[in-house]
Each structure stands twice: as C-alpha cells, then as structure tokens.
C-alpha cells in the first residue's frame, strides 16, 4: 500500500488508515486533502459528517439552525448551535473559506478517483440533544463570553494563522481548555463523537483490510480516535 511521503501536521497512520486532521475553515486543509488523496490513493474516503450535513454540503444548503429545530435540539442545544454556526461563519469570512470546504473537496476528489465515501459522525440532532440535556447554563455563558472575546478582542492565548490547521501543541491546549472550562461540551463534542467515529472506522478497517482508507476529521479528534483504534484493533 502507498504511504504518504510527507506528513502534514495533525496526521497519524495506523495500518491501512490515514487520519488527517483538518480545520473546517483553514485553506491549508483543502490543500492537504488534495495531497493526501493524490499520494495515498484511498479506496475509501471517510468524512466527519452525518447524512444530513453530507446532503447539505452536496446541495449547497446552509446548515444554520432554524427556530423549528428547537423541538429536536432542545433550547440549550439550539442556542449552542446558533452561536457556533455564527462564530464559524465569522471566522470563515476572515480567511475567505466557507465552513466545510475541506469536506466538500474530499467528496469531490473521492468521486473523481472512484473512491467510496463513508460517513463517520453521529447525527447532529443527537449531539445537540445530548448537549441540551446536559449543558449547564454556566458553561453556556462561558462559551458565549469566550467566543465574543475571540472574535472581537482577538485574545492572544491561542492566536494562530486561521488559514492553517493549528499545530498539534495548540490543538492539545485547546482540547485541554475545553475539558476544564466546558466538561459537558468536551464529553459530547469530543469524547462521545470520538467513540462513534472510532467505532465506525474500526468496522471499515475490519471489513476492508486490504485497501487504503483516508479519514478526514477535525484536528481535535485525531489523537482520541487514534488511541481508541490502537486499543481495539487486533490485526
């Protein structure tokens, strides 16, 4: 099997799998996706998407929550989704990249190369409903304040070039910060989804041991998924 000659940041290889960490608004991510597909020649491209978000990207629909979604997400889940979507759009405008462009590139390249597409993430409504049920108002208030500071006051602790995927050290610091300041969000957005995506990747690897698999996931998920696979994969 072909191996990557040069590994970009936030990338790990495990057996026939390449885990490529991306930033959903980083222009560098699009370049790295192109490089990985051309070099690794995957037969399967696995994406950090659920079916609904996959279809929305395919048809150019915006994923912004609507008022009627409150009944599916819960009030706190809905507010978190609205605030998160707004922040991602604002940051995307700064660098001129629409949120999810690296996933769209992965879909396009998979089709061009005849690779199969696998969807890894759990449905968004499940994630947001779990957040709504468990998220404390204290965490929600902290999240709003931190986003506001990051967008309008450009807090310096985690400043990095938004066009690039943050370095591994910065990613680790950000994940650690989320774990401390927002334990519910850390559990639901990172830990729980790592379990879901890691489980699906494990099944794909078991069912397709002789082909190359490229997984495109947020940089903050790479280490967690890799550790889960290393513990559970027996080949």
Tags for this model:
alpha/beta, five-stranded mixed beta sheet, disordered N terminus, 5 strands, 10% strand
Read across the widest sheet, the strand sequence of neighbours is 1-2-5-3-4
Overall body shape = globular
Major pleated sheet:
5 strands, mixed
Radius of gyration: 17 Å
Give an overview in words.
α6 packs antiparallel against α9 (183-207) and α8 (168-181) packs across α9. The two termini are 16 Å apart. The chain has 235 residues and is of the alpha/beta class. It has a 5-stranded mixed beta sheet, with helices on both faces. It has one domain (11-232). The relative contact order is 0.22. The model is unreliable at 1-8, 90-97 and 158-163 (pLDDT under 50). It is built from 10 helices and 5 strands, in the order ββαβααααβααααβα. The chain has helices at residues 27-40, 51-58, 70-73, 75-95, 101-112, 124-134, 137-153, 168-181, 183-207, 222-232, and strands spanning 11-14, 17-22, 44-47, 116-119, 213-218. β1 (11-14) and β2 form a beta hairpin. The longest helix is centred in the last third of the chain and has 25 residues, at 183-207.
Give the secondary structure arrangement, pairings included.
Layout: E1 11-14, E2 17-22, H1 27-40, E3 44-47, H2 51-58, H3 70-73, H4 75-95, H5 101-112, E4 116-119, H6 124-134, H7 137-153, H8 168-181, H9 183-207, E5 213-218, H10 222-232
Parallel strand pairs: 2-5, 3-4, 3-5
Antiparallel strand pairs: 1-2
Summarize the structure.
With 235 residues, this protein is of the alpha/beta class.
């Amino acid at each position: 099997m072909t191996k990557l000659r040069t590994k970009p940041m936030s990338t790990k290889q495990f057996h026939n799998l390449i885990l490529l960490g991306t930033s959903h608004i980083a222009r560098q991510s699009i370049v790295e996706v192109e490089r990985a597909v051309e070099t690794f020649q995957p037969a399967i491209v696995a994406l950090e998407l659920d079916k609904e978000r996959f279809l929305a990207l395919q048809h150019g629909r915006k994923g912004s929550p609507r008022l009627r979604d409150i009944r599916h997400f819960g009030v706190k889940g809905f507010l978190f989704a609205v605030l998160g979507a707004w922040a991602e759009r604002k940051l995307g405008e700064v660098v001129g990249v629409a949120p999810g462009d690296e996933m769209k590139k992965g879909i396009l390249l998979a089709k061009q190369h005849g690779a199969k597409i696998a969807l890894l993430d759990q449905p968004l409504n499940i994630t947001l409903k779990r957040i709504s049920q468990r998220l404390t108002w204290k965490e929600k208030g902290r999240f709003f304040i931190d986003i506001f500071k990051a967008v309008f006051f450009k807090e310096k602790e985690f400043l990095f070039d938004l066009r690039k995927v943050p370095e591994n050290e910065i990613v680790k610091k950000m994940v650690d910060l989320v774990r401390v300041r927002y334990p519910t969000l850390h559990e639901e957005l990172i830990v729980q989804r790592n379990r879901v995506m890691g489980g699906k990747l494990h099944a794909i690897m078991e069912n397709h041991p002789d082909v190359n698999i490229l997984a495109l996931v947020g940089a903050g998920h790479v280490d967690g998924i890799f550790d889960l696979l290393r513990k559970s994969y027996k080949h």
